[in-house]
Structure formats: C-alpha cells, structure tokens
Amino acid sequence: MDDMQRSCREFTEVLASSAPTPGGGGAAALLGAVGASLGCMVANLTVGKPKYAAVEEEVTLLRENCDALRLRLLDGAQADAEGFLPLAAAYGIPKDDPKRTEILEAATLEACKAPMEILELCCAAAKLLARLGSIGSRLAISDVACGAAACRAAMQCAAMNLWINIGSLQNKTEAAALREKAEALLGEYEPLAETTLQRIVAELKGETV
Q1: C-alpha to C-alpha distance for 41 and 43, rounded to whole angstroms
Q2: Could you tell me how far CA 180 lies from the centroid of its own chain?
Q3: For residues 176 and 7, which has the higher predicted lDDT (pLDDT)?
Q4: Which residues contact 11 (CB under 8 A, 6 or more apart)?
Q5: Angle at which helices 141-166 and 172-204 pack, to 10 degrees?
Q6: Distance between CA atoms of 97 and 87, rounded to whole angstroms?
Q7: What is the dihedral of CA 13, 15, 20, 22, to 10 degrees?
Q8: Rounded to whole angstroms, how far apart are CA atoms 35 and 17?
Q9: pTM of the predicted structure, to 2 decimals
Q10: How much of the chain, in percent, has pLDDT values that exceed 90?
C-alpha cells in the first residue's frame, strides 16, 4: 500500500517505527498537504457568499490551485519514500566496492529531488494562503493562519531532508546549487508564511492597525 493511501493512524504508526520510510520527507509532504487543504476549506467557505461576490472568481481559482497542490503534496510523500530507498541500499554497499562512491553519489542526488519539490509546493501553498488571508471569509481566517503555520513547518521539514543529503554530496558544485535554490525559496516564503500568520493573529486579537 502506498504511504499516502494509509489512514492517518496507520501512517503515523509506520512513521513512529524503525521503518526507513516514511520519514521526515513524508511528514513534510503531509504537513504541506494539510496547509493546502485548509486553503481549500477557506475558499469553499468564501465562494457563494454575497459579501465576497467581488472576489469570487479569484477565490475559485485559489481553491482549484490549493486542491492541486494538496494532491501533488500527497504524491510527494510517496515520491520521497521511493527516492530514499536506493540511497538506503547504497549505504549497504561494502566500502571496498570501487563503485560504491559513484552509486552513493547518484542515489544521494536522487534522494534530493522529492524534498526539493515538496519545498517548492509548500512555498506555492504559502503564497495562495497569503492571498486568502487578505480576501477570504473572515469567519475562517484562523484556518488560513493554521494553514500558513503548517506550510511554514513543512518548508522547514523539507529543508532538513535536503540539508542532510546535500551534506553528503561529493560534487560541491551540485551541492552549492541545491543549497542556493533551497535557501532562496526559504528566504522568500518562510517570511511570507510568518507574516500571514502574525497578521491574522493580530487581527484575531484585535490588534490590527
């Protein structure tokens, strides 16, 4: 059974076990999917309300995009598991095998792909949530904040999976390029998610200027 076809109980039971997958990458994807799902919910609670008629077309598009990200992130959890297994196998190659370094390097690069995509998808979800925080139903605004917090955590989790793999790469040019890309994404979208969260917290506490 694919990781993301499990119930939440089953998924977390396997996550808690010593099984090699799912791990932090799967957890990042699930957190991101939760964030995107909350965006869908807020959009659904906004569409059709006369008060928000002026933004209904945009909110409908935001809903579609959030749902697409939700599905891609769920797929990303499985992709992360599949990408890690060759790396786990490569670590089992005897150290005196002349091909070990080459195989390990290729497997490490492959294992970086899913966490990077998960990071990108979470950033995209954070952007959609930021917009929903401005135009979505105020009755569901706390859910936007929850979604932003989930996406921020997911970004950090995806990055952890990148850092541990990037640190093992022998090709320092490849490592630097991956690190630069991830840091650029985090530098732009972590503050966006945090700003969305804090702005809504202030609104809920009646501190909006």
Answers
A1: 5
A2: 18
A3: 176
A4: 3, 4, 22, 26, 30
A5: 160
A6: 16
A7: 120
A8: 25
A9: 0.93
A10: 88
Structure tokens that stand for 195 in this block: 């700003």
High-pLDDT (> 70) share of the chain, % = 96
Q: What angle do CA 92, 3, 128 make, to 5 degrees?
A: 115
Place of tokens 């401005």: 134
Q: Which two tokens stand for residue 135?
A: 């135009």
Amino acid at 103: I
Hunting for tokens 């979505």 — which residue is that?
136
Here the tokens at position 109 are 């690069």
User: Which domains does the chain show, CATH number per domain?
Assistant: 21-204 (1.20.120.680)
Mean pLDDT of 9-15: 89
- 96-133 residues labelled b (16+ CB within 10 A) or e (exposed): eeeeeeebbbebbbbbbebbbbbbbbbbbbbbbbbbbb
Determine the Cα–Cα distance for residues 11 and 59; give it in Å rounded to an integer: 32
Q: Judge whether 65 and 131 are in contact, CB under 8 Å.
A: no
CA distance 194 to 148: 7
Helical ranges in the chain per DSSP H: 8-16, 24-46, 56-91, 100-135, 141-166, 172-204
